[in-house]
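#onboarding

Welcome to the new folks! Below is a worked example of what a typical request in this channel looks like: someone posts a single protein sequence, and someone else replies with the predicted structure as tokens. Don't worry about understanding the tokens yet, we'll cover that in week two.

Example request:
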Amino acid sequence: MIRALKLEFQKAHRRKVWLIAAAITLVEILWTLWGVSRMDEHDLAQGWKSMQFQFSIINSIIMPVLAAVITSRLCDVEHKGQTFKLLETLMPAGRIFNAKFLFGSLYMLAAVVLQILVIILVGLLKGFQGNPPLDMLAYYLLFTGSVNLTILLLQQILSLQFPNQMISLSVGLFGGLVGIFLLYLPQVFSKFLLWGYFGELLFIQMDWNPATRIVNYSYIPKNWPGFLILVIGFAILYLIGQRLFIRKEI
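Example response:
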């Protein structure tokens, strides 16, 4: 597996995958910072919740696109060079599948960790009320990271199955649009679409008073049943995706 990961690193380095992933993540961070740039005393008192909420909303748009771009860049090189068969002479097809997923996961998890670091840094600099809620940030990492990895897995399956990477990229763009629309629909719809789990697992609610135009954020109970569904879905998707790739005639 170490050998397979080294091969993925060498290919990704030449294709500047890290640069593309960093650029997309930077856009998301700047977008969020713009949203919290003008905070009054009331906003500062809710700053930790506010930034987690804002990142979660923007994740539903950006993360499906990021996953699609990463997987298409990692898989497109083998499709163009028709080198999957050559790789399979060096290692089993299942190991190739796993190596690509693990390598792509580093980018998706790094994006979430960077978000958390930005939340802490901005909170300390702007003077958010109280200490950083490390327990809630850990839950944020768990839930957001889990959704990211499941979406990455779906995108990788598509990128490996179809040589035309526009199919995978189109699904990623579609997922970003669906994710944001699901936030404004009844929650029952989010349970049946993967991209809706950014909102389904969101443990912060926003209460906007139209009369006073004041926004309040509060923590709500964690959606552990939803998280369990996501984990089961990930396991099923992984087994199907790996089997499809192993049986694929390349």
